[in-house]
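Materials and Methods. Structural model of Alpha-hydroxy-acid oxidizing protein. The 413-residue sequence of Alpha-hydroxy-acid oxidizing protein from Amycolatopsis acididurans was retrieved and submitted for structure prediction as follows.
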Amino acid sequence: MVTRQVPKPSELFELMKFKKPQLNAKKRRLDAALTINDLRTIAKRRTPKAAFDYTDGSAEDEISLARARQAFLDVEFSPSILRGLSDTVDTSTEIFGGPSALPFAIAPTGFTRLMQTEGETAGAAAAAAAGIPFTLSTLGTTSIEKVKEANPNGRNWFQLYVMREREISYDLAQRAAKAGFDTLFFTVDTPVAGARLRDKRNGFSIPPQLNPGTIVNAIPRPWWWWDFLTTPKLEFASLSSTGGTVGELLNAAMDPTISFDDLAVIRDLFPGKIVVKGVQNVADSKKLVDLGVDGIVLSNHGGRQLDRAPVPFHLLPEVVREVGNDTEIAIDTGIMSGADIVASIALGAKFTLVGRAYLYGLMAGGREGVDRMIHILRDQIERTMKLLGVATLQELAPTHVTQLQRLIPRRTA
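The predicted structure was written out as tokens:
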């Protein structure tokens, strides 16, 4: 028998704990985001469909991106127990000749101020506050010099496309060097634009056009259009003119004749570290190491170029085995949590880059949203390391990770 009694008022009062209401709507919104997917949900709600889909989507049937994300979901961790850890873990590392407080950087993203008007200045300032590198894209919407102003004492990296007009690329490399950018990402996976079908279906153009569809979509998001229309005109790091879809702009600017000769020219122009981004097989990795590059980034451009491209996370162990002792290897594509980053480091990556996660934070809340994104990933990295029983990134090893084998059903005729 359970003995029941009338609740005592004093005991009821002990249970009634009321939090002070948060009157700042942005802070309330961001504080409620506990994962990158939470930030994505907020971003989708606050951003016009065409701009959100430009960030969220990838090429053709979006198979490359889906496979990259599934690869991380198929990770099984193997923790060690009773390791006598302290209350804190060390998430710092050295990458491409300098420090980073966390094992990830903000990846290069194009047309960023179209996602949210603070754009790259928000990303660079948040990176500076967190002690991680920020990467500016050739197709960024903030100049090299303005990014340096936003992150004057931190590490800035520049991602370089080789343009049809070579002098544009050469000038950008020299401007980045002059502004103190310490690493240049020579990007090799974009000889032509991938078929980004969401953009075509949405009629997404640079700059965005007002038409009946976009006006209807803008009605519940007036803040986005207000920010866009009342802030300075978009400034591109390289393109002197705009007008057209993203694919049209890329195809007009990029040069499919790019070769190893172009890499040699850029190496002569840029005095800092040269890292090749967009590597997708072992043979190319070996050749680049033989040429003496300072690092490689295993990447399929976030699934935005060749659909059904190799999954960087799957490629990682073999590349590490072949060239990991000779160069520094970073990885991107599909990273949506701190656990994804920990798994990448465990399998031999020295570093990672996050692109969509950064843009979801930016769209969700500008600079504060990027800060929240970094906070979420930092918290997840630290907790995952503690639960694995490691105190430093250097203690992570392949034995901590198993990649589960999934059965893929055969297609029937």
